[in-house]
Amino acid sequence: MEIFGMPLQAVSGQLVLGLMNGCFYAVLSLGLSLIFGLLNVINFTHGAFFMLGALFAWMGTNYFGLDYWLMLVIAPLAVGAVGVLVERSMLRRLYKLDHLYGLLLTLGVTLILEGLSRSVYGVSGLSYAAPDSLTGVLDLGFMMLPAYRAWVVVGSLAVCGAAWWAIERTQLGALLRAATENPRLVAAFGVDVPRMVSLNYGFGVAIAAFAGVLAAPVMQVSPLMGQSLIITVFAIVVIGGMGSIAGSVLTSLALGVLESLTKLFYPEASATVVFAVMALVLLVRPAGLFGQSK
């Protein structure tokens, strides 16, 4: 059976690969939307924190003998702590200024982090092996799917679902949203608003680091590994709607599949299809598909 002249097996395989790429985009865009929606900061350091997550996982395994599953917890926590330090020492001074200042500051932090990593480890890339429990393959009938890639899909969707539930369905999430919309009122009830803001930023970048650990066995651990993803992720966040968590996740999955199918049917456009969609969406709905116009 063929679809548009392509074997069904090839199309099905691309759909699965597109879903996996979409899951990477979803975790990264989730952190971006979380930080912008609650802190109103365009966080350009997201790609660098994604890279730090993978690099910390590699360091923990090769220097200290810690296994993948342990680093899947430790690396995001460590990067989240770095994020809290960045927020407390630099970002909080810019919240009342124009978005451009925050973007320029986070861009500068990105260049510093990438430069330090490049000076120590170079740019050739470091290999990071998947855990032994995920080295097999799954027979889906139409393709053989590596078990690790299946875990990437499951782990990414689980993190996205848990983050959405924590923000939208818990008392802590409601308090955090209130603290960002009316900090004076929330502070009057005895809540330490600056601490909550710092923890929110740390949580957002920890999610990016979690994606980095997931990506480490799939791609080379390199100081520049975040650069190839972050521009696409920014476009996805704009399409879904800046600050919309559900919009970013759903848009990531859809565009991951679209990008993968474009590689199959028209490879020349695969690198630009996401940006073409972004241009069309902004022309019709400037706030994004799921964003709210102000």
TrEMBL record:
GO molecular function: transmembrane transporter activity
Places the protein is found: Cell membrane
GO cellular component: plasma membrane
InterPro entries: ABC_transp_permease, BCAA_transport_permease
Organism encoding this protein: Caballeronia arationis
Transmembrane segments: 6-28, 35-56, 68-86, 148-167, 199-218, 230-258, 264-284
Pfam family, one: BPD_transp_2
UniProt name for this protein: Amino acid/amide ABC transporter membrane protein 1, HAAT family
